[in-house]
């Protein structure tokens, strides 16, 4: 009589265009929307980096049409020093938030996490839809700052107080630009909190029969761990953004100290703590680095295993190491503040976990290398990008050992050495993960194959190009080249200008190589060869459903899982791989206990 | 590693789409040996897990505000101590009372859903009382802000007032979300489509708002 049963809400397949493609509740559509957002954002971010590199490599270079973007920022098409910093800030913010977080975590995670866990959808589809649209609104707000009178903020993606909190007196973009920046970030945080809520609950509660946690593929584990980090990190950045907004619009003094004189005017604020912003920001900021990279680790492991035709040396140790990275990432954030005047004992306290965090990172790398050793890796674009990820992660990671030590960091801090380090280990590595994931999963997402020859050409140009860009940064840093300078006029910097010219040419060429990818993406979407259900002979659940997957992911029969995710080359089996859904009895030495 | 022979587990493989979440069983960390007899046959409804995840995120947000308060107060010479508006203590009683009334209504709804109780007015009455107490709490908070403003004590008067307004407004916004949840529960109950998990999740959220308020009151009382 009063049956109000506890079944999860189900939503039927939408019929109208708006519900199907725009305000969709389907996690697959939302995943694609996130991917499209990241694609637009990465193009904007890359063009900004070209503009900056042209200005750095060739001083007072007139970039045709730049005055159309900003009359004050580029009179006569030549960038002003302030406008250089504004573009740099926007490059960093767009890339970290709307590309490196959005693509590997929100885009691929949304599309594949429910499928890999055997769920019909995320448990809270309305929150999921809001997650995308709130994030999208954040992006629009950030873009809007290009078009306000004095342009976007110039404070860097870290927005250090007090200059970020005092308003227009601190320079162009430090008024409205910062407020728009902070609103954008607050919106982004809300969007990612909604997303994390769905990711965690999907992993815990929506798994199909037989799918124990240890049977989840490594990519699903990576998204799960990242979502837990996102839940805690973005929940701290959002209050920080609110406090920053209040310092601007409500006249409060959270971050602005007393008696501060900027540009000859005494500010009315009192008693604020400039370091408070750094603590709040980096408590988010360092985990954010891992939020960007851990999904890539999972995606790359997933791709490598499928192409090696054998599992990693240890499924569990890899998962535990990613978990250890997540936990330790909250304990190391102070290493960004070594030169903030912090007590030497505090430096030591942050240096120690920073060195410790290299242990799980090294374990993960050794598992990859040890598993690759002696394997007959299938060479395709996806596996090449996965190898590229490993290469970038190692190259960028090695310089982390130097920066982890306060005594060396004091010399290298705020130089191009740091810029080279984080671009390789976090930015480019994550981008390689995104490329790998795209070439690997594109057939499942669209029903068509990408062009392999163009893909391999894209890989080699990008791989060589990124090393040409970012390895010289380390040299520049050791030579004392400070980052964020818009021109090199000091005696010790002038001899380094040829290196900057080389980097600029490499950046333009590598950027141009991305046109191959965009052409491949668009052409294959409409004209690519039809994709079979399981083009790479994979074992996990995404390969056991139709291509592209139906609205409820698995059609009229929900999957049941019998095996670990990576049963390849199993002795006595009927083929060299056993799908997770196969009920075949096998003799296996690899299956986890 | 020893060789293991896997027999296909005996399971009901005919589960159809639309029957709710899968039953991997989230407390099930193993056994991946193919022996699925130990696997729990059901997962909790996502709302029961989801609400804890959401509360964890709210906890982190208020933890960040708290640490900001502690750090900001630690280095400040400009800190003015403030006297909390007395109505806050009345509001505290109201929100605690609302938790009790919600718990009564939750049990009555459960009894009604289980068919043990036939009269629909009974659980509804307590849900409405809870809603009214929630609205009274928010109205009381607004009264407190107006009282301070009428004395010329505004957001930017001093950093202690900034934190007072910030924390109480952030909490009141979260409480308003809870009121929306209560209205949703009442609407669903009236249509007889209320799920047990929705009611439980809403009441957990509401109780958490009460606990959070008591924490904030103690924090504000000690620090401001």
Describe the fold and architecture.
The complex is a heterodimer of chains A (593) and B (224). Chain A is mostly helical and 593 residues long. Chain A has 16 helices and five strands. Chain A is 60% helix and 2% strand. In chain A, the strands form two sheets. A two-stranded antiparallel sheet of chain A has the order 1-2. In chain A, strands 3-4 form a two-stranded antiparallel sheet. In chain A, strand 1 (261-262) and strand 2 form a beta hairpin. Chain A is globular and about 80 Å long. The relative contact order of chain A is 0.10. With 224 residues, chain B is mainly α. Chain B has two domains: 7-43, no CATH class; 46-223, Cytochrome c oxidase, subunit III, four-helix bundle (Four Helix Bundle (Hemerythrin (Met), subunit A)), CATH 1.20.120. Helix content of chain B is 65%, strand content 1%. Chain B is built from five helices and one strand; from the N terminus they run βααααα. In chain B, helix 3 (121-150) runs antiparallel to helix 4 (159-190). The interface between A and B is large, with 79 and 75 residues.
Report the helical percentage of chain B.
55-70%
What are the segments of chain A in which pLDDT stays under 50 over at least 5 consecutive residues? Answer: 1-9
How many DSSP E strands of chain A?
5
What class, by secondary structure content of chain B?
A: mainly alpha
CATH architecture level-2 label of chain A: Up-down Bundle
Please give the count of helices of chain A.
16
Largest sheet of chain A: 2 strands, antiparallel
- Content of β-strand of chain A: under 5%
CATH class of chain A: Mainly Alpha
**Major β-sheet annotation of chain B:** none
Tally of alpha and pi helices of chain B = 5
The count of domains of chain B is: 2
